């Protein structure tokens, strides 16, 4: 039987924000309309199921005490677990499929009692997945807010920036906090801004962590060296230890992206690539041959 905390990769003491952040990351990664892995659909259902339970304080309390069995049909809590009748519904939006679970007696709005993984409604989650557009659901009793897309640079996203935009002939200054990413949505006045972040060839972003590749020569790897590394704070001198192996990972704590709601920062991971020269001079060949011969000499025990 699955452990909902392990499914989301969080601890039992995780905060609501940490649980929501973990769900969003996994949901975007495993949604079957984005991930073509044959197991993506089942994985996405597991992730959503886990979030529906541990994001709800009442359900979480029951789960911590009785486990997943409390929510199974035929349990001591009734046919559909401790929270009454639940239904799973599916639908289609253009080429995309979606599913959601409801709880309660189904009265009132068709989305009452639905947990959309920390999003206010399916309209919002579809903007995260598919980059905006018209919601396949619609919303009863609520006017849809206009949405405008805005493209910003990678460094603007990680550092924060103010942008002046023209909306319906009126200039507006939008303050974008540090740490946003593609798909982030900012509520501003009577409309929302959906962000698209241009990639940076120097950095690959993994949530709030960054991955950077550096290339060094065989001699630098063997002897050690000082290299200049790009970071979002500017160039950094990095010491390469003698004997560094190809593919080695160096972790730079606190050199990643700032969390949106705190001053905490992720880490930067430096992946070392050792470049083998395709052409050698006669002198280089001679030296490498001598090195190879020296390496194969047998050494005594004493």
Q: Helices, strands, pairings?
A:
Elements: H1 4-8, H2 16-30, H3 40-54, H4 57-66, E1 86-93, E2 96-103, H5 122-130, E3 147-152, H6 154-159, E4 161-167, E5 170-176, E6 185-188, E7 191-197, E8 204-206, E9 209-217, H7 218-223, E10 225-229, E11 236-240, E12 249-252, E13 268-275, H8 282-295
Helix pairs in contact: 2-3
Describe this structure in words.
By secondary structure, the chain is of the alpha+beta class. It has three domains: 4-144, DnaJ domain (Helix Hairpins, Orthogonal Bundle), CATH 1.10.287; 147-199, HSP40/DNAj peptide-binding domain (Sandwich); 204-278, Urease metallochaperone UreE, N-terminal domain (HSP40/DNAj peptide-binding domain). The chain has helices at residues 4-8, 16-30, 40-54, 57-66, 122-130, 154-159, 218-223, 282-295, and strands spanning 86-93, 96-103, 147-152, 161-167, 170-176, 185-188, 191-197, 204-206, 209-217, 225-229, 236-240, 249-252, 268-275. The strands form five sheets. Strands 8-9-13-12 form a four-stranded mixed β-sheet. Strands 3-7-6 form a three-stranded mixed β-sheet. A hairpin with a 6-residue loop joins strand 10 and strand 11 (236-240). Helix 2 runs antiparallel to helix 3 (40-54). The chain is extended. It starts with a helix and ends in a 7-residue tail after the last helix. Mean pLDDT is 78; it is low at 76-80 and 91-142.
